[in-house]
Each structure stands twice: as structure tokens, then as C-alpha cells.
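Design a sequence for this backbone.
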């Protein structure tokens, strides 16, 4: 439930559940039972979002259906390919790659999908912490001229 039904609306929910499991394993009952009860109440009251779950299913379906003209897979863009050899560098592998820490905004402006493929897989909600994710998503899309500023 913490990963599927709460997700990024409260990313701490998953950590709390894992901590509760570890507490039960370490302390046993009855002390560990209280950690489980705390996790249950936390999950029940947490804001809910299944947007990551839906995005994951969308991504799996896109891969299964194939995005290529014949329904097969498409090539990874050259700028994302590793270039460990001179021949690969000569063929353009890695050329134009935007390294996030050199240009935090530039890395969001590069294409991560094969040429001609446009997929909008993730749509953040306004629930809990995910509202911050949605705001950053909009700002990045606005900064790079993708749409009206709202996630698809």
C-alpha cells in the first residue's frame, strides 16, 4: 500500500513500513506489534496517489506494445550511449549528452526517448508531497517549452 496507493504523496510511508517490519524482526512481539500498529494508522491517514504505479504500468505497456514502426523496439539516442572506444566516439556516441551536475537545467532539455517517440507516462497529483513534485514538473516543462505548463 505504501508504494502502490500512497506513493509520492508521502514517500516516507514506505520507509516507515520497512522500519516497522525491521522492528518486528528485531524486537518481536508485543513491542514490534506497536510498530505495525503505528504503520497501519500512518498509512490509513496518509495522502494517497497511485501516479507512480500508473506511470510504471504505462511504461511497461509502451515497451510491450513496441514503439517502432514495426511494433518493435527503437534504438537508444546516440547522445545517451556510452562511448568507451574511439570508434564509438567517432560514430557520435555520447556527443551532446547533458550531464545534470554540469547543467542542471540542460539535462532536462535533452531527449531520453528514441527519435520520433513522444510519451507522457507520469502525471503527478496534487496530493501531499507530490504537489511539490507536480510544481517542479510544471516549472521544468515551462522552462523547456513543453506545453501549457501542466503535466500531461
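Sequence:
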Amino acid at each position: 500500500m505504501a508504494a502502490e496507493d500512497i506513493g509520492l504523496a508521502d514517500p516516507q510511508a514506505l520507509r516507515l513500513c520497512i522500519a516497522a517490519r525491521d522492528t518486528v524482526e528485531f524486537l518481536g512481539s508485543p513491542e514490534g506489534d506497536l510498530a505495525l500498529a503505528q504503520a497501519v494508522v500512518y498509512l490509513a491517514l496518509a495522502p494517497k496517489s497511485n501516479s507512480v504505479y500508473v506511470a510504471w504500468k504505462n511504461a511497461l505497456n509502451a515497451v510491450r506494445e513496441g514503439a517502432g514502426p514495426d511494433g518493435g523496439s527503437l534504438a537508444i539516442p546516440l547522445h545517451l550511449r556510452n562511448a568507451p572506444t574511439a570508434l564509438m566516439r567517432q560514430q557520435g556516441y555520447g556527443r551532446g549528452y547533458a550531464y545534470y551536475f554540469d547543467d542542471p537545467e540542460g539535462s532536462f532539455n535533452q531527449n531520453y526517448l528514441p527519435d520520433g517517440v513522444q510519451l507522457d507516462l507520469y502525471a503527478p497529483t496534487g496530493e501531499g508531497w507530490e504537489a511539490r513534485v507536480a510544481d517542479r514538473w510544471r516549472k521544468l516543462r515551462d522552462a523547456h517549452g513543453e506545453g501549457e505548463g501542466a503535466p500531461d
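Confidence is low (pLDDT under 50) at residues 147-152.
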